[in-house]
Amino acid sequence: MAHPEYILTLSCLDQRGIVHRVSGFLADHGCNIIDSAQFGDGQSKLFFMRVHFSSEDAAMSDARLHTDFGVLGDALQMNWQLHDAAKKPRVMLMVSKIGHCLNDLLFRYKSGLLPVEIPAIVSNHTDFYQLAASYNIPFHHLPLATGASAEDKRAQEERIMEIVNANRIDLVVLARYMQILSPEMCEALRGRAINIHHSFLPSFKGAKPYYQAHDRGVKLIGATAHFVTSDLDEGPIIEQGVERVDHSMGPDTLTAIGRDIESVVLARAVKWFTEHRILLNGHKTVIFN
């Protein structure tokens, strides 16, 4: 019979003996470390750690592990989480009218490359309801007219949050969802909403960024996945990707290359989140991969 496995993530003020105390706790509770990573940030003076371990004592319950580690966590003033490694995180995908990231994530999910559950897809358009149906995933069409009033936008976001709560969503992925979230919704989803955008910001904002980039003769294009915050496109960065381009490539070619990069970068960010590899460090992230 396989032993249950867990992933412990933590951050606290850096000090001597943290690794020793954590590993000693696990050994004393009948646990065996499978892999471990840690990082001490000299600037923030914070220490970060991720430990993947198995519990080999049949008498050791989840509740006792949580309770007992809470004592150590309080002693060291830790921000910590203990996750069941076998539990698949529940992810909600949001999309508008551009579907390459949605399609890529759904394929990775279906093929087992992305170990998650996807109980809902939300869109302000109906373009991808058939795609959702092909994966047997409920599709929620929540339209929002151009120039919608603040009341209409608030009502739409309240419906989104109802879906999030009803489906016990762990992560919301803005897979090219082309609506700006309100500060209230950003706060409600703090640390559990990821967005993807081209890396041209702030130089190439607005419509058709790859056409703008082509007009300027760029030599490098890319994409950035980041946590959603009320500061538009300025949340903590999770992953980035780039590709060299040249003068022979037209805007359609740049768009195709850019969409490939966006898909890969977003998929990495989602996978790292679901594997509990991302820890927040102020306005930055620590990624254990």
TrEMBL record:
Superkingdom per UniProt: Bacteria
Keywords: Hydrolase, One-carbon metabolism, Purine biosynthesis
Chemical reaction(s) catalysed: (6R)-10-formyltetrahydrofolate + H2O = (6S)-5,6,7,8-tetrahydrofolate + formate + H(+)
Active-site residue numbers: D233
Domain ACT: residue ranges: 7-94
InterPro entries linked to this entry: ACT-like_dom_sf, ACT_dom, Formyl-FH4-Hydrolase_C, Formyl_transf_N, Formyl_transf_N_sf, PurU, PurU_ACT
GO molecular function, one term: formyltetrahydrofolate deformylase activity
Keyword DNA damage on entry: no
E.C. number(s) listed in UniProt: 3.5.1.10
Record-linked NCBIfam families: PRK06027.1, PurU
Function recorded in the entry: Catalyzes the hydrolysis of 10-formyltetrahydrofolate (formyl-FH4) to formate and tetrahydrofolate (FH4).
Sequence similarity: Belongs to the PurU family.
Protein name, as recorded: Formyltetrahydrofolate deformylase
